Amino acid sequence: MNYEGQICRAPMERASFMLPVMVGCTYNRCKFCDLFKHLTYRELPLKQIEEELKRVQSAGGDPGKVFLGDGNAFSLSPDRLQEILEMIHSYFPSCEAVNMDATVTSILSKSQEDLDRLYKAGVRHLYIGIESGLDDVLTFMEKDHGLEEAYEAIRRLKKAGLIYDAHIMTGVAGHGRGRENAEALAEFFNRTQPRHIVNFSLFLHKDVSLYEEIKNGRFVPADELENLQEERRLLELLEEVQEIRYDGLHDFLEIRVRGILPREKEKMLEKLDRAIAEEKGKGIEAWVEGMPVP
Questions:
Q1: Which of 36, 91, 87, 22 is nearest to 63 (CA)?
Q2: pTM (whole model) above 0.70
Q3: Residue range 170-184, pLDDT digits in tens
Q4: According to the CATH classification, is domain 1-127 in 3.20.20.70?
Q5: Phi, psi at residue 259, to the nearest 5°?
Q6: CA dist., res. 23 & res. 43, Å (int)
Q7: How far apart are CA 67 and CA 17, in angstroms?
């Protein structure tokens, strides 16, 4: 299948077969994101999806995991998702899990009965862009949810047996608010217990609407030292009822912090301590492609 746009999926899905079921993102309004701005959202025809399944099967493929793309596959109607899931299992009998990105709104738009039947049809992991633990930051960044809605969505998906994985962005609260955001996120995660946390530390790009907020002074970016300090505070405060896999990526710094909490927490904190010591005094911000601060 010819893939339109940029491939976007969590690191944990690198071994999954990626099956596009849509182009773009149904929401596409987050101020920090430019992944889908150039695309016109549309659902892919079921015939096209089935042709891709046939192609992979004829080549000997029978993947154990499938990841549905693109930006928010869980926004599809329950009936359409059910059709796609049934096709996947008919062509790939070894498939044990179908995973995808979701938004809080796409979860809340479905009834508990819908969530139950999608679990029974094979959906397992939903990756949710939580991004921040602060309601005013979520509002400013034009996320499609607040914290209370996120709590309710996670309660409902867990009731259905689905696994919740979180995307966050250190630096998203801006200069001087990293510690506050880390503490709010830690409280949220300690209450909701995700299976995975992926931190795509905020990068700054001139093609997103956040750039205009920076130019007019309504948003002051955190530097990379602040992002590292925020990340450390979050990991320090996480209380693990179950094992949590953490993966922290930084576009501008050559550091990646990943491991399993709680058993690797101290090793991860030590790595961040070294990076923080090296970063002190530099004042570097994560402008992609080295673009200068305006």
A1: 91
A2: yes
A3: 999 999 999 999 999
A4: yes
A5: 170, -175
A6: 6
A7: 6
